[in-house]
Structure to design on (366 residues):
């Protein structure tokens, strides 16, 4: 009985967080083709699925065939396809388990774990309907968990391979980011001599095989190469067409850069807790690459809704880094204490302001 109670005590925070994340997959959402945060694409994906068409076979866009699962229920449908919920359980499980491992690595007390776990979801305020964010967070948590350990975590590596393959078949930009994370991690493990070149080849072969099988099953097409090439071209042209510069754009660029710079301070401090210099370099490389892609995604259109999505994506990443850096407040160096406190103050102020002035999914984007 004591062993069971101890297990429940140790894993309760992870279960709470996993259930919270999964709730965004199962709770009803306000499907509306006129939704200000590109609600039309959800309606279009559901309509596309209902008509029996497939992205990657009948048409090509920035989204792929897995995105059909995320479309709104159409016609007589009451729920989304079953694989959608399977992916939700997988992502929620990754977030909960990896977050618990990070807390365990920081040697937090049970009370502190519960408090941190309850505070972390506040990063996702008004982010319902943006499941892409949770996939990004799962990718970053998997990487951070691997970088904190001296030995390679095979479960995390396999999970990263699965999530990376799903990412590319879901959306081209997410696939680029997920593959980037996977390659950087494998390269770091190879440089640290934690895995052999043969193992890297096996991992990449597993990724390609899973990617191809997943594409064929979800799209009904065998032409994966055409899907990737046309998807990259469409994504590039889409960015060129959707570029918008408004009167409020330049100040928001500066605010976003200050926000990312402050987060970079947290990343630099968190990198000191990684398992060696190569692991620290791996974390910083992925962090900077992720910030670059999210900045591009948020500010190419430069409308208020997409900028708000940018802050909703990067803030959970900063929170993870803050948790990893938590023991840094025990430092005896006064300048380091001042720096950390200043970084947290800047992040808190900017996020609070953006949360108020940037519209959510239920408020119009002017």
């Amino acid at each position: 009985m004591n062993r069971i109670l101890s297990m429940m005590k140790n894993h309760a925070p992870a279960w709470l967080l996993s259930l919270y994340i999964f709730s965004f997959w199962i709770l009803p959402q306000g499907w509306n083709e006129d939704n200000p945060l590109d609600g039309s694409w959800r309606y279009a994906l559901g309509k596309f699925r209902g008509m029996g068409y497939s992205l990657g076979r009948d048409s090509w866009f920035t989204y792929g065939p897995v995105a059909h699962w995320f479309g709104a229920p159409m016609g007589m449908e009451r729920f989304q396809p079953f694989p959608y919920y399977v992916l939700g359980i997988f992502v929620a499980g990754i977030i909960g388990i990896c977050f618990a491992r990070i807390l365990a690595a920081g040697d937090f007390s049970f009370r502190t774990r519960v408090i941190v776990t309850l505070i972390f979801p506040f990063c996702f305020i008004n982010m319902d309907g943006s499941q892409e964010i949770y996939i990004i967070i799962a990718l970053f948590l998997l990487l951070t968990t691997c970088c904190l350990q001296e030995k390679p975590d095979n479960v995390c590596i396999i999970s990263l391979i699965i999530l990376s393959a799903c990412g590319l078949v879901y959306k081209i930009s997410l696939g680029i980011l997920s593959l980037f994370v996977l390659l950087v991690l494998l390269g770091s493990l190879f440089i640290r001599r934690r895995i052999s070149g043969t193992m890297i080849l096996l991992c990449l072969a597993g990724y390609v095989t899973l990617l191809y099988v997943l594409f064929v099953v979800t799209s009904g097409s065998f032409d994966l190469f055409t899907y990737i090439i046309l998807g990259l071209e469409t994504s590039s042209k889409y960015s060129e067409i959707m570029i918008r510069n408004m009167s409020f754009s330049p100040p928001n660029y500066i605010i976003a850069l200050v926000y990312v710079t402050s987060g970079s301070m947290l990343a630099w401090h968190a990198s000191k807790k990684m398992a060696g210099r190569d692991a620290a370099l791996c974390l910083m490389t992925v962090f900077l690459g992720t910030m670059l892609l999210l900045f591009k995604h948020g500010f190419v259109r430069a409308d208020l809704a997409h900028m708000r999505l940018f802050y909703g994506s990067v803030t959970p990443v900063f929170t993870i880094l803050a948790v990893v850096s938590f023991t840094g407040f025990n430092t005896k160096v006064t300048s380091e204490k001042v720096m950390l406190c200043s970084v947290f103050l800047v992040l808190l102020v900017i996020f609070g302001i953006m949360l108020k002035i940037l519209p959510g999914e239920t408020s119009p984007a002017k």
About this structure: The radius of gyration is 21 Å. The chain is about 70% helix and 0% strand. The CA atoms of residues 139 and 160 lie 7 Å apart.
